[in-house]
Design a protein that fits this description.
Tscrpt_reg_HTH_GntR, DNA binding, TF_FadR/GntR_C, mainly alpha, DNA-binding transcription factor activity, transcription regulation, single chain, 3% strand, 73% helix, Four Helix Bundle (Hemerythrin (Met), subunit A)
């Protein structure tokens, strides 16, 4: 199911209006959006419609929320950034993958226990966006959004902090270059099928299957990256 198709026309219109608000840049310097009530009054939509539109935009990585502070355009501040900068030179791409295999399968298992139906719809939307991406940068952006959403749904603050550190390291230019080298039309199709397998296990609320599917996905990523690095020598 296409996630956007699950919404009413009002929600689709609300998405369009709020995207335009973000794209136009007519926001305060901190990127804070108007409140749900203010958006509702400005655009003439119900609060529930506005809330669902904001949830989609958050899943897409266009905004983030802080409890008691509001909703903001862009990406949230990354408290792991300083630590990531300190260790980035000490960790190679395969070391990052080793750490991911130690953390992300458990996040997928917890996600399978705690995901709602709407969470699954968002994951499917992000998987479709990843596969449909026209270039490597866009594909990497949406791919990262899938894994971050799984980590957030898992709901374990310590594991989420560890994931955030890894995610910050893998956003570095050197890592991105290695990922681009390892990406091809063939691997893109493989990764999409693996994302769908992970999401199907989450949808079935099968923690063991979600854990195994994530491990399989990360192992394939690791093997492809290792071959690419060896070929580049």
């Amino acid at each position: 199911m296409n996630y956007d198709d699950s919404f009413s026309d009002n929600t689709t219109r609300a998405l369009t209006q709020i995207r335009r608000l973000i794209d136009d840049g007519n926001l305060p310097s901190d990127g804070r959006l108007p409140t749900e009530r203010e958006l509702s009054e400005t655009y003439g939509f119900g609060r529930r419609t506005v809330r669902r539109a904001l949830e989609v935009l958050e899943a897409e990585g266009l905004l983030w929320r802080r409890q008691g502070k509001g909703t903001f355009a862009g990406q949230p501040p990354r408290p792991a950034a300083q630590m990531a900068a300190e260790i980035a030179d000490e960790v190679d791409a395969l070391g990052v993958m080793e750490a991911r295999m130690g953390i992300e399968p458990q996040l997928a298992a917890l996600c399978a226990r705690r995901a709602s139906g709407e969470d699954v719809d968002r994951l499917r939307l992000l998987a479709d966006r990843t596969y449909a991406a026209a270039d490597s940068d866009s594909s990497e952006l949406w791919d990262g959004a899938i894994h971050r959403l799984i980590a957030r749904i898992a709901g374990n603050p310590l594991l989420l902090a560890a994931f955030d550190l890894l995610d910050t390291v893998r956003m570095g230019e050197d890592w991105q270059h290695k990922r681009h080298m390892a990406r091809s039309e063939e691997t893109r199709a493989i990764y999409h099928a693996q994302h769908e397998k992970i999401i199907a296990a989450i949808d079935a609320r099968d923690s063991d299957r979600a854990r195994a599917a994530m491990m399989e996905h990360l192992q394939v990523l690791t093997d492809n990256m290792r071959r690419t690095l060896e070929d580049a020598l």
